[in-house]
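Repro:
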Amino acid sequence: MEAKLILTVSLLISGTLTITADYIRPPPREILHFPWSPKHSSHPQQVHISLAGDKYIRVSWVTDDKSSPTIVEYGTSPGRYTAISEGESTSYSYLFYNSGKIHHTVIGPLEPNTVYFYRCGGQGAEFQLRAPPDQLPVTFAVAGDLGQTGWTKSTLDHIDQCKYDVHLLPGDLSYADYMQHRWDTFGELVEPLASARPWMVTEGNHEKESIPFFKDGFESYNSRWKMPFEESGSSSNLYYSFEVAGAHIIMLGSYTDYDEYSDQYNWLKADLAKVDRKKTPWLLVLFHVPWYNSNHAHQGEGDGMMAAMEPLLYSASADIVLTGHVHAYERTKRVKNGNLDPCGPVHITIGDGGNREGLAQKYMNPQPEWSVFREASFGHGELKLVNSTHAYWTWHRNDDDEPVRSDQVWITSLVSSGCVAEKTHELRKILMGP
């Protein structure tokens, strides 16, 4: 098989094709270095945006000036701001590090699929964003385990070429790993993309940064990357949900309690009970540690969460599950409990954004029946929900700095296949409890 062959696979119930790409990976690249450049203390830094409910967007940024106002001015013409919103701010200390003032301001209501120009804190550079559409089609860029290496930069450059509406990140953002200034450089690195399109993230193991008896976990992550957990009825920034166009998207936490007695499990049940598949025919789920993984790396780490939550997601007819953690790419057939199932979700591991730890290159043999395509290369994915019945998924390998489309597949929604209707009674029974 030629390495450049574009693989087209039809994801059908009867499909039996399994693929392992024959590709020689390039060597790792060094961690990026960010030369110090003086900025005005009240000018916004590390600007990024996220969805904050129907027609609302949260703008987040950092200033060195603790007296800088937490306001965002915005409008549909450059330099002409017709609205202003005020938000909240926070800061944190971590050993000898003191963060700047971290601002979070929600703006809206915004018109869908519309470009807005905005300014943070009343001064500094003007940014622009595009609000996502409120109807299908909608396109997501997907990349996990980013870090701050030369390959990260390559991945981000490729994503920048994609005409996407929202970025989905299933954990492991900055790889700061206790070195708090690396959160600042990560914010600087992703600002060009993250200030223009919503970035929806969930936590990975590298976000934990806990120190026993001294520091709780996820303080840096929660302070900097506030997600719409309150808007979705969650009590924790580590798990939440949101809707965009025709998709209901659930972001779960692999590193907080998930058993049937946990707050996360009970929140998930309540959230699934609210899903209207007529309004949002697609149900997507993201978390960090994969449940289906034929790589030797991180084998079995997701088994506990899978045992607790897979029955819930199966009964709810989740269409696609996106995860990270394993530094490689893998896509499955529809699967449940280790067996092929036409009403199970497609699982996609995409922890290959460009982190400093390198690629996970050893796979289990023989390849499991549920595994369709697997390859240890850096890259990113693009998911286009075309309509209520069909989605187009592509994975783009970072090949000599060119985004080579190496895997692509049309995915049919479970709504259109009849699985949702079949499992309505089963889901209601689980959600109502004994």
